[in-house]
UniProtKB/TrEMBL annotation:
Biased composition (Low complexity): 347-361
Keyword annotations: Apoplast, Cell wall, Cell wall biogenesis/degradation, Disulfide bond, Glycosidase, Hydrolase, Secreted, Signal, Transferase
GO MF entry, a single one: xyloglucan:xyloglucosyl transferase activity
Cellular component GO terms, alphabetical: apoplast
Function: Catalyzes xyloglucan endohydrolysis (XEH) and/or endotransglycosylation (XET). Cleaves and religates xyloglucan polymers, an essential constituent of the primary cell wall, and thereby participates in cell wall construction of growing tissues.
EC number annotated for this UniProt entry: 2.4.1.207
Record-annotated active site: 119 (nucleophile), 123 (proton donor)
GO biological process, one term: cell wall biogenesis
Name of the protein this chain belongs to: Xyloglucan endotransglucosylase/hydrolase
Residues covered by the GH16 domain: 40-234
Extent of Basic residues compositional bias: 324-346
Subcellular location: Secreted, Cell wall; Secreted, Extracellular space, Apoplast
Family: Belongs to the glycosyl hydrolase 16 family.
Amino acid sequence: MDYRVLSSLSKSLTPFSLLLLLYIFPAAAATTRAFNLSTITYEEGYSPLFSDFNIERSPDDTSFRLLLNRFSGSGVISTEYYNYGFFSASIKLPAIYTAGIVVAFYTSNVDTFEKNHDELDIEFLGNVNGQPWRFQTNLYGNGSVSRGREERYRMWFDPSKDFHHYSILWTPKNIIFYIDETPIREVNRNPAMGGDFPSKPMSLYATIWDASSWATNGGKAKVDYKHEPFAAEFKDLVLEGCIVDPIEQISSTNCTDRIAKLLAQNYSIMTPERRKSMKWFRERYMYYSYCYDNIRYPVPPPECVIVQSERDLFKDSGRLRQKMKFGGSHSHRKHRPGRSSRRRNRAAAGASSKSGQAAAM
Ligand SMILES: *[C@@H]1O[C@H](CO)[C@@H](O)[C@H](O)[C@H]1NC(C)=O
Ligand SMILES: *[C@@H]1O[C@H](CO)[C@@H](O)[C@H](O)[C@H]1NC(C)=O
Ligand SMILES: *[C@@H]1O[C@H](CO)[C@@H](O)[C@H](O)[C@H]1NC(C)=O
Ligand SMILES: *[C@@H]1O[C@H](CO)[C@@H](O)[C@H](O)[C@H]1NC(C)=O
């Protein structure tokens, strides 16, 4: 996976400010369910990453929309870096024609550690006309870009219809990706992973962009700007963790207490009930796993836990034995289960962005 220059995404920088006036935002309500999350405003936690003119903030500043139009995608970044944390937002994805579109919600430090960055990804991959969104999760540690750890999935609902919470928990012990309160993937830190387990402070990013070259049918289905603008909506913004300066050699911030607090939160506890929901999700909605891709990894990476009931569903290519039906299958299925004002110069961050590994997946 390489990081290509954003300018290829931005064909022009013509402001599209009229659009900003045309949208009326629904009032965002802070939700507190089992996770007991405290939400923040955009101003409290976020800064523009690129194409400010395509970022629309709600009047009360509790939600924002990222637009993709023929001129550019757009993106935001957390103003701070976090040394471990919990990153969450309710997201509603564009509907109808989403081929070639990627919406990403991820943590990274590529702007500071260009050669040995860390990253935790949730990437929504558009689909051909009428077909539901798919998504993938992935991680990199200390520049392990040649060792992708992708898993791909469908969802049990239509993510363009309603808001759903998407969360990344990152602790020194493990990583858990959540949709709403269902854990969908857990990576337990295995000492054999070494630097491949993300361990340097990261920022949270949210972006929408044109990935026509790889995202859908290997690049055959491209973004159709007849349907522009494409808008991804974000609310219930949560950034929890130990705020640090990533380039201090010896951190003046002692994160011990903050990390202990993080580990004590409801979302950090993997209960038997949650493990059951995770199994439920993975057996029904996962359609690719690097852990089962024995062609790519004859010996699965050390953190892989081979679950036999899952393994049986996959071929040696890491893909499902039986072709998964995409069309409409999610519609009838019910789900069971103050910051520092210091603004770092994000120019460097704006110059690099995610681009996909299309590879053979
Ligand atoms: C999380 O909070 C919910 C609601 O308060 C509670 O029912 C549940 O037992 C808690 N889970 C854990 C692991 O603490
Ligand atoms: C929920 O969070 C608030 C503020 O962070 C805290 O005061 C309260 O004790 C928490 N409630 C539970 C049930 O953990
Ligand atoms: C991370 O990468 C840097 C530079 O390549 C290297 O010096 C360092 O030892 C690595 N750290 C870990 C934990 O592997
Ligand atoms: C950080 O704080 C904890 C407890 O608050 C303390 O035990 C520990 O020694 C501190 N570590 C450093 C490096 O200051």
